[in-house]
Design brief:
By secondary structure, the protein is α+β, with helices and mostly antiparallel strands. It has one domain: Nucleoside Triphosphate Pyrophosphohydrolase, CATH 3.90.79.10. The chain is 21% helix and 36% strand. The protein contains 4 helices and 11 strands. The strands form 2 sheets. Strands 1, 2, 3, 4, 5, 6, 7 and 8 form an 8-stranded mixed β-sheet that branches. A 3-stranded antiparallel β-sheet has the order 9-10-11. 29% of the residues are buried. The mean pLDDT is 87. Pfam families: NUDIX. InterPro entries: CoAse (IPR045121), NUDIX_hydrolase-like_dom_sf (IPR015797), NUDIX_hydrolase_dom (IPR000086). Keywords: Hydrolase, Magnesium, Manganese, Metal-binding.
């Protein structure tokens, strides 16, 4: 899928007012992530990061660039762009924001707003070793295929939760990142007669 097809699919569907996979509860810490889309040889790829093992929260997990919304951030979009610049060296001026998805609530206590952004031109990765151990791309076409996205019910503290996961090569994408990818792919899915 290239940029033109992505824009067509993204804009044909109205954005939902809430994430259908959201877990409702109060007192969540607000965070934002950037879903960075980069066209590589005519195909859109998602940029993902892997968190270092020394971090207290979510060590080693694969995620989007992002983090807590700070008081100095004017919006979730501002926070996502700031975090992407800090974590992987992606300048905010190099990102065209396409839109945001409804906040995704996690059972770990976060309300995460996904911000969809198209990277305007190639850039040199500059990883913050305190936040990012690795950075890699995955073709969006891999995620679009429904058989590559999985969901399973898990019991935690007496309550069942739906956990998304996506194996990719030697990597394992799961939790909020996989749920956000699933939401994006379901949003982009169109019946063949509409294409």
């Amino acid at each position: 899928m290239d940029q033109a097809e992505f824009r067509l699919r993204f804009n044909l569907h109205p954005l939902a007012t809430q994430d259908p996979a959201a877990i409702p509860h109060l007192g969540l810490r607000k965070a934002a992530v950037l879903i960075p889309l980069q066209e590589i040889q005519g195909e859109l790829n998602l940029i993902l990061t892997q968190r270092p093992m020394h971090l207290r929260a979510h060590p080693g997990q694969i995620s989007f660039p992002g983090g807590k919304i700070e008081p100095s951030d004017s919006s979730a979009i501002t926070a996502a762009l700031r975090e992407a610049e800090e974590e992987i060296g992606l300048c905010r001026e190099n990102v065209e924001v396409i839109g945001t998805f409804p906040a995704h609530n996690t059972f770990t206590g976060f309300e995460i707003t996904p911000v969809v952004g198209m990277i305007k031109q190639d850039f040199a990765l500059r990883l913050d070793p305190g936040e990012v151990a690795d950075c890699f791309t995955v073709p969006l076409s891999f995620f679009i295929e429904p058989q590559n996205r999985h969901r399973k019910q898990f019991l935690r503290q007496g309550r069942y939760y739906s956990v998304h996961f996506i194996p990719y090569q030697q990597r394992f994408i799961w939790g909020a990142t996989a749920a956000i990818i699933d939401h994006l792919c379901r949003h982009l899915s169109l019946p063949e007669e509409m294409l």
